[in-house]
Amino acid sequence: MQLLNVPGLMIENCQLESLYLQRTVEIDFYLPIHVTHPEEMSLLILNDGQNMEEMGFAGILSELYTAGAIRPLFCAAVHAGTDRKMEYGISGHPDYLGRGAHAGQYTSFILEELLPHIRKTYAIRSFAEQAFAGFSLGGLMALDIVWNHPALFTKAGVFSGSLWWRSIDQDQAAYDDQLHRIMHQVIRQGDYHPGQRFFFQSGNMDETNDRNNNGIIDSIDDTLDLMQELVNKGYDRQKDIYYLEMADGRHDIPTWGRAMPVFLKWGWGI
C-alpha cells in the first residue's frame, strides 16, 4: 500500500507474515524515484522502523536527494514488535537477564524472509551493497547481523548502541568489562572481514552512568572500546570506522534524526 510521495521518493507499507517470529511484521519501504538502473541502488535496512515518522526520515532522504548529496537507497524500515527486548540483541547470546533470546529468529526473518520478499516483490536481482542500521538495542542487533554475515552486508550504522550487553550483572564482584561485554567478545573471537565499514554515534547526554569512574559515561566507553576491538582485528580507524560524538546528544529520536544525514552521507555520499 502506498502511503505518500515526497520529493525524490515514494513510501510504501507492507505487512509480512513471519514464520520465524510467529507474528505479522510491518515494514515501511522508502523507494527512490527516477532510478534508471535499480541494480545500482544500495539497500539499507533499519530496525525500529516505527520511529521513522517521528524522526522525519522521509524528509531527511528527500532533502539529500534534492541536493544531490547521496546515491539512491532502497530503505526498509522494520517495525519492532511487542517482544522487542527478546527479538533484538545478539544471536545465540542472550544477556544476563535472558533478553535477546529470539535474536536468532529475528536474524532468520531478515535473511530468509525479508530479503527474498524485497527481491521478489520489487524485481531487484541484486543491490550495489547492503547495509543495516539501528538505534539503541536495535543498533546492537544491526551490528550483530552485519558482523556475522559479511558476504551480505558491508556497512553497519549503530546509533547510541546498547554495547553494554553483558553476560553477568555489572554489580556482581566478578564483573569485568574485558570479559563480560558480549559484543566485544564476539568481535574479539571473530575474523577480519575485508570491505566492511562501521558508523558509530554516541551522545554525551546518552546516560549518566560511569561504572569505572573515569569521567566518561558508560555508553561512550562501550562504544570506544568496541571500536578498538575492530581496530585490533585489522580495521583501519580512519577508513573503516566513523565516530560521531554529539556533545548535546541524548538517547532519543531527535538526536538520532540529527545524526542520520551524517550517516547517510558517510555511507552513500556523492
Protein architecture, described:
There is one protein chain. With 270 residues, this protein is α/β, with parallel strands linked by helices. The protein has helices at residues 52-55, 57-66, 84-87, 103-122, 137-148, 177-180, 182-188, 218-233, 253-268; strands at 2-6, 9-18, 23-32, 42-46, 73-78, 130-135, 155-159, 197-205, 241-250. The protein has a 9-stranded mixed beta sheet, sandwiched between helices. α2 packs parallel to α9 and α7 runs parallel beside α8. It is globular, with a radius of gyration of 18 Å. The model has no long low-confidence stretch (mean pLDDT 96).
Keywords:
single chain, 270 residues, alpha/beta, nine-stranded mixed sheet, 9 strands, globular
- So how many helices? 9
Assign the structural class, choosing from mainly alpha, mainly beta, alpha/beta, alpha+beta, or little secondary structure.
alpha/beta
Instruction: Write out the strand line-up for the largest beta sheet, numbering strands in chain order.
Output: 1-2-3-5-4-6-7-8-9
Note poorly predicted spans.
none
Count of DSSP E strands? Answer: 9
Beta-strand portion reads 15-25%
Radius of gyration: 18 Å
- N-to-C CA distance: 31 Å
**Whole-number mean pLDDT:** 96
Shape: globular
- What is the chain-wise order of helices and strands? EEEEHHEHHEHEHHEHEH
Main sheet attributes: strand count, strand direction, barrel closure: 9 strands, mixed
Proportion of helical residues: 25-40%
